[in-house]
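Re: [help] complex structure
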Amino acid sequence: MTAAALYAGLGVLLALLGGLGVALRREAVARVLAMNVMGSGVFLVLIALARRSTAGPDPVPQAMVLTGIVVAVSATAVALHLAAPPDDGDDA
Amino acid sequence: MNAVLPVSWAPVLPVLVPLVGALLVFLVGRGQARAVALGSAAATVVTVAMVLMDVALRGVRRTPLGDWGTPLGIELRLDGLGAVLLATAAVVGGFSTIAAAADPPRRAAPEGFWSAWFLLWSALNALFVTGDVFNLYVTLELMTLAAVALVAANGPAARPAAFNYLLWALAGSLAYLLGVGLLYAQQGTVDIGLLASRGRDEPVLRAAAVLMTLGLALKAALVPMHRWLPAAHAAAPPAVSGMLSALVVMAPFAALLRLWTSVFAALPRAQVGVLFAVCGAVAVLWGSYRAIQQARLKLLIAYSTVAQVGYLFVGFAIPGAERAAVYLAVSHAAAKAALFLAAGTVARALGHDRIAEFGVISERFPITLFTMGVAGVSLMGLPPSGGFIGKWLLLEAALSAGAWWLVATILAGGLLAGGYVYRVLAACFQDAPDDVVTHPVSRTAELAALALALVALALSFTAPWPLQLLAEGGLS
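Output below.
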């Protein structure tokens, strides 16, 4: 099995585990972490796919991953703010 | 396929105008936020009208963004489906903005609310015109984040629902992104037109189809992935709930339609069709049944959305019913937004939304009662209403396909919808004690809701033109 295929398989596994975590865990922070694991899994698959040819890495999936990371970071920030206990004087 | 379409910058405008509005409203700050918001809404509606006239006169438009062409550049494509959806978003968004501006809860940061509102609108419009599956992912995320922010705008009590919504929506987006990656790895492009022409029935395409369909169906709240919806739509401010049920849930379904009629057109639809038909049928029956059981109006309406989404997927599954599904989605958008706005008025008037105590509505809030009735007519699928036209077309297609069990389901769904609409209306006509305290409500908000409900009625008379547009856009 090539390295790329190995990483792709790992990525799929991580994505599945993360997805299960989002679905099944109860605690808010655990779910946010699971969502990040799922994201990392998907990004890993994309990076592995960037290496699918011997002519060198393909930058387009890497660009997709960068976009995905930006989205994941913003979404994590929003999720953590929503999960945090509300303080007084905090507007939604 | 793309290169022969004429280039125009028209498709960019419906995305750009609300985006600029979002920025302006944030810069202007809380003093003028409402005024700028109303102005931005008006500008968006006018822009969409102009762009649609352009498309109606001169046909499908495409815009290569940055003048970089495919396969790497992102192209926007405004076709029949996009035009119908843009118009829907404009009408629902316009009236909802009026209602939200007229009847504001005590918002601590109105500029934040309105910014998110116009970001949502911009993201929706972007989703309707994008010609690139990865750009579609970006628009889905933008839409999700803005929608979650708007749900949370109702105060700390809405946060758990918003949080759950965010996580599920993100899970769906990640599944979708994985599918996009697979598509790119195999075809070397993410442009919808190119993918459509290069698509063959292969394992990788099937895997991508499964992933992307799963992600989009989750975001559209198809049973059994609907659990996040009732809490989120009930917890949001009323105008936001209207936008969510009307547009935010419909957009992923529209994306699914677009994908399956282009990128995945080479794949046989039979298996996914059966799955969608079964899930859709369960959604129709289960959602309506749960709606009848609810004690609170907003939850009732939210479960009604779950049921109506079921109809959309049933339409997807039946050959020849795609346009019916879209028409049903458009009518549902108007009717559901009207219903949520009316529910907001009721909640404002009474201070709660417990259906059992609605007796005073018929005496003191006749406009709102009428709005709920009219919206209910469309949801039940009674003539004359857009809902009736959509259901009629759906039944026609189901009968020609010989899917008797779907015919029975659709009819049963209409009956059950009648059940929950009747529950609400009957409760409003009960005798109420004279000492019930009601608060004043904004007449503008009531009228905006009524206008949307009348739009749902009017859609029964305007069917030929959108259906023709959709057919030209490649839907059956």
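Chain B touches chain A at residues 72, 107-109, 112, 134, 137-138, 141, 144-145, 148-149, 152-156, 158-160, 162-163, 166-168, 170-171, 173-175, 177-178, 180-182, 184-185 (CB under 8 Å).
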